[in-house]
Amino acid sequence: MSRNHHEDSDAALLDILTAPVKPTPKVFARRDAALDPLLIAAAAASGPNVTRNHYHHDFFPGVALPQHEGSWDWTKFSGGDAADRRRLTYKSLQAPRRQRLHEELEEGKENDPLDLEADPLKSADNIPHSAKKRRSSIISPATEVKPRAKVASTLEHVAPSPVPALPPVEVKCMARTRIPTPHGPAFLHLYHNTRDTKEHLAIVIDPAQLSDHRGPVSAPPIRSRTLDAVWEGETEMDRITRGAYVGRLSATSQKVSEPVASISPEVNPDIPSPLIRIHSECFTGETVGSMRCDCGEQLDEAIRQISLPITVPSPSPLLTGPTTIPGRGAVVYLRQEGRGIGLLSKIRAYNLQDLGHDTVTANLMLGHQADERGYEIACAILRDLGLGGVAGTDEGEGVRVLTNNPDKVEALQKEGLDIVERVPMIPRSWQKRDPSLVAKKPTLDSNPYIVQHNDDERVAGATLIGGNAVYGDDLDKYLRTKVVRMGHILPLWMEEQSV
Ligand SMILES: Nc1nc2c(ncn2[C@@H]2O[C@H](COP(=O)(O)OP(=O)(O)OP(=O)(O)O)[C@@H](O)[C@H]2O)c(=O)[nH]1
Q1: Strand-strand pairing, 253-256 and 245-250
Q2: How far apart are alpha carbons 382 and 225 in whole angstroms?
Q3: Among 5, 228, 312, 464, which one is least packed by beta carbons within 10 Å?
Q4: Residue-wise pLDDT tens digits, 345-403
Q5: Which keywords are on file for this protein (predicted)?
Q6: Residue 410 Cα to ligand 1 middle (Å)
């Protein structure tokens, strides 16, 4: 269904709803009104016996009186008596969506810990599971059908219990291992936590700790407190196996780590604060290579930028010139797919986007917020790594954060993260695009949008990590929406190039 078609239908419908006299009947093409905010609003305005699932029954009053002349042709409808109308009021066999959402409350949302009693096939319903943090239904309570008896009792049970404050989240690094990447070595840390059952990750980049050699300038190693702690009843081999070692692990080198000292070491003030990124899982962008979003390249770009060597002024007048140390920082990889709505809902949101809605509206239409992510776990992980400690204290180093998202910065600061700088992430496709390519479309044989970057910038990788810039209309639309609707701090490429 094209956008124009939608707009024509909207205009025609508005005419009818606002016309002083009834216009001649028009044929309206079928539309999936359950997803159309204008129709939902019209339905909500037209009477108390209306839900988004059967709004159309009340648009034409004669439908409630099937014997009456005009039942099927509303230009001939003359009213009928009020008693008849009451008797024939439409009754939905399906509870209004708001009620069903309340019923879903107890089952938890898609991202919540597994509820073993919940029926997993329930997720085949067309109901988003995230009811807890969701805004109230698009239909205002005043216009809804009264709850059926069964549902009413559920509501009584669920209704206004205040959300108890959650205890502070605790994290524990369960294991760590070295991962060679096209950008250099990284240490993958797997975390468990007390808030959800997901395995969140930290990709720590600090190759200096692979060797015992310390140059004239060195930064403190980025180590996990909980990983290096001695766990009850474990052997040295257990410690090595879960990654509590120092240096480079090999058949001939196995040195267990010591628990991290509680007082942070002094950091040379000439060494910039560690660069970090809080990255949210995106199966489509990172694994499938989807060009609907920039998540794949953001993950790659973050690892690349953090791995870049750091140039530090010479520590001594006796040494000539600046010295270079390996890049250091971390990507905290949170399992909050689709800005926290989960993959299932994100897939549905993509279909709504294909119908012409943007990423924010699509989330709202599914009953979600534009962004349902939280950063408490991320901050706990960073603190465990000695990063971004407590602002104004010497607990942990302050961090530079790679992001364009001001909401993310604010959320991290609210969690007490000491952010010394925000480092922007300019999409590759907006850094290097040749405006003359905009009019061209990719074909099966060639993709004129793909531009090779300099060899020193891009490293060929086995997967999407280390890949090149890619361009596409869906990607542009997504990036533009992030700037225009979500306030991401990024110069709009289209406007700059006057496209
Ligand atoms: N619901 C939804 N989520 C999406 C969509 N496209 C990407 N995502 C998710 O968005 C998350 C990444 O967030 P973004 O908004 O792209 O970027 P950000 O992390 O907020 O901001 P930056 O730090 O600047 O990258 C990942 O979890 C993706 O799965 C979409 O169309 N709908």
Answers
A1: antiparallel
A2: 10
A3: 5
A4: 999 999 999 999 999 999 999 999 999 999 999 999 999 999 987 655 666 789 999 99
A5: GTP-binding, Hydrolase, Nucleotide-binding, Riboflavin biosynthesis
A6: 17
The response to whether residue 358 sits with its C-beta less than 6 Å from ligand 1 reads no
CA separation for the pair 232, 346 (Å, rounded): 42
**pLDDT tens for each residue of 173-202:** 999 999 999 899 999 999 999 999 999 999
Q: With residue 481 as reference, give the H or E element that holds it.
A: helix 473-486
Structure tokens at 213: 């050699």
40-49, 145-154, 384-393, 445-454: segment of lowest average pLDDT: 145-154
How far is the C-alpha of 396 from the C-alpha of 331, rounded, in Å?
17
Q: Is 68 in the pocket of ligand 1 (CB under 6 A)?
A: no
Contact 39, 24 (CB under 8 A): no
Nearest to residue 195, comparing CAs of 398, 381, 341?
381
Q: Structure pTM? A: 0.68
Q: Has domain 171-336+373-425 been given CATH number 3.40.720.10?
A: no
**Active site residues per annotation:** 371, 373
Torsional sign, CA 194, 196, 197, 202: negative
